[in-house]
Structure formats: C-alpha cells, structure tokens
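Throughout our pipeline, every protein is held as a single compact record rather than as scattered files. The record that follows is passed on verbatim for readers who wish to inspect the format.
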Amino acid sequence: MAFSELSRPWRMRGDYNPRGGLLLCHGFTGAPQSMRPWAEHHAAAGWEVSLPLLPGHATTWQEMTRTTRHDWYGEVRQAALELLERHERIAVAGMSMGGTLSLALAQDPMIAPRLRALALVNPAATVPRAAVLAPVLWPLVRSLPAIASDIAAPGQIEEAYERTPLRSVAQLRALTAQVRRALHRVRTPLLLATSPQDHVVDPRDSDLIAARVGGAVERLRLPDSHHVATLDHDAPRFFEASLRFLEETPR
C-alpha cells in the first residue's frame, strides 16, 4: 500500500519543562501511523514524544527482508539514548512487536536503570508455531498474506505491508525468544493492555509477560478492540489510562 505522511518518524519536543520523555515503538510490518493518535495525545498533555520508524518498514516488504531484529532494536535503542540526553529517566511504550522491543529495552543494562515506566498494548512474546519453519521456508516461500488492520472499528485502516515477508517472521521469532528468556530482568513498572479478541498476537502472551516480569504490573482489558487497539474503539480510554499510569511514576 502507499504510506502517508503519518507513517514517517515523528517527534514533539513539548514545552520548556515537559512532563517527561516518552518513546513509542510501532509493530511488525506496520509504521508510526498506528501510533500517532497515542503520540499526539501524550504530546498534547506535555510529554516530549519520540516515534521512530523501524528500518525496513514503510517502504516495501522486499526491503524489510534485508533488515534484522538487530536493526529494529538498534533504532529504538538509539531513540531512547537521544531522549535520555534531555531526561534523567524516560518512559517507553509499544504495540505488538513494538511491545517486544520495549521489553528488550527494559532488559538492556545501560537503558533499564533509567526507565520510569512501560506501557504495552498486545505485546508479542511468542509467534505462531508455523513460524518455526520460517528460517527453512523463506528461500522458497518469500511472503505470506498481510496481518495488518486487525481493527474492530469500521473505517479504520492500519498502514502496513500487503504481504508479510517470511524471512522477517524468522527474525521476529528470534526476537521474541530472546526477550521471553529474560523477562525476569524486567523490573520497570508496567501497564499491560490486552485485547481479548486479538487475531494477530495470542492474548495469552500478555498473561505470560505478566507472570514472568520482575516488577509491578497493572492490567487493562480492551474488550471492544482487536489487535491494533490504538486505532480502535478502546483507544480513548486506553490513552487516558496510559497518561495516568505514566504520570504516577516518579521522574
């Protein structure tokens, strides 16, 4: 599909004395467009917000096959370090694979001590069993049908690839396995929002994360939304819950 201006990286510095620094991480095959309402809501409340574009995204799915989980993590890590140049501590938030990358930041020994809060929506901690074969099949089967726009609200569209590159699925599988093994190292306070009717990420992934992380967890159910909850019916309620949770954490 054609990607709009909303799928470009976005940053709002906020006022002279912002409420804090917030890094937002978008999901697998998606783009910042799915996160812009969340980003703009918190920026309007006085937060300095950084919303980067992951390498290989918002171009073509063929381009995505030339990037790896190390490229994706490197981008969000660099964005976190740039925010930390202006803030003693920052918050990190993400949806889907963006939630997985957020958890990776909370496991990073250089980043984790300076995180004040995490806010995650339908984060991925596993991938479907079929993905086990992705490293073997991708030279033969280059792509699968799209996973985008799992949204209950009519008329809402997620800007994302029309195909899912299988080589990138293998990278996602490796990323989730790496993060899952070290969940006990996540001690940052966590708001964990879950859609029971998620057709992309198994809702039980949220239960797994909540059970294994080492810090405090607040759960939020999004009963009227599918996977892309930031563009769905529960988005306004979630944005308010996210803002409250982040502002209750010490700077």
The first strand starts at residue 10 and ends at 12.
